[in-house]
Amino acid sequence: MKKHVVYLGHFITPEGIGTDSQKTAAVRQWRTPRCVRGVRQFLGLASYYRRYINDFARVAGPLHELTRKGEKWQWGPRQEGAFTTLKNLLVSTLILEHSDFSIPFVLDVDASDTAIGAVLSQTMKNGNQLVIASLYYPLVCFLCHIYSSINSYHIYCVLLLTRNA
Hints:
This protein has helices spanning 21-28, 36-48, 56-66, 77-91, 155-164, and strands at 5-7, 10-12, 16-19, 96-97, 106-111, 115-122, 125-126, 129-130, 137-145. By secondary structure, the protein is an alpha+beta fold.
């Protein structure tokens, strides 16, 4: 019987799900984009694995700015930093644990002027020992840029929006 399976770029084991190292290995040699098309190609790959990257929208934000219609191409330190950080995060080996439906779920939400976010997590059992309550294992990470239409909302209204997202 197989102990793992690789499916659509994901490495699935009884312990959890992670990225397929053969698929993400090409990221190590990915050259710095020189045009908007190159940024979109990189973001396409990175977005496919966004569930493994905490605060993906915030990290990728400087790259997304370059893809806006009418935006002037200007690759600077912010874009280089975002590109390098995303590359490093994509090649790291993060395993997301499978849900245990006998343990309660925790939903943490947050909002700022530029993004809303939520993390669905559980405090998992480690044998007979409980993991410290302040440590959570991310199951699903969600973070998206706030559209300019809701940028004028008060922060409390944005937090309510995250609860309904």
